[in-house]
Design brief:
By secondary structure, the protein is mostly helical. It is 67% helix and 0% strand.
Length: 92
């Protein structure tokens, strides 16, 4: 017989992981953003809450921080010369 999942403990662990990965975000921000699509959070089960938190965690981790200033400047410069860059590619 398998053990019943302890969603409450998993929620706490997920919140702890979020705190470690994003120390500048407070717990309210994590919870509010994770449950943003829910109209009434009063009836959200632990299982649903865990699902929302895990989905939020994945989405948050997929958002990579911006690259350094030099790379941003290079991207802007390349964008301003896009026509020349496209012309050079057509010649190849």
């Amino acid at each position: 017989m398998s053990r019943k999942p302890n969603y409450y403990r998993q929620i706490l662990q997920t919140l702890e992981n979020l705190r470690k990965a994003h120390p500048t975000y407070n717990i309210g921000r994590h919870i509010s953003t994770a449950l943003d699509g829910y109209d009434d959070v009063w009836g959200v089960t632990d299982k649903e809450f865990l699902f929302a938190l895990e989905k939020y965690e994945i989405e948050l981790n997929m958002d990579s921080p911006h690259i350094d200033e030099e790379e941003i400047e290079e991207i802007i410069k390349d964008g301003m010369n896009l026509e020349r860059t496209l012309f050079e590619e057509e010649e190849d």
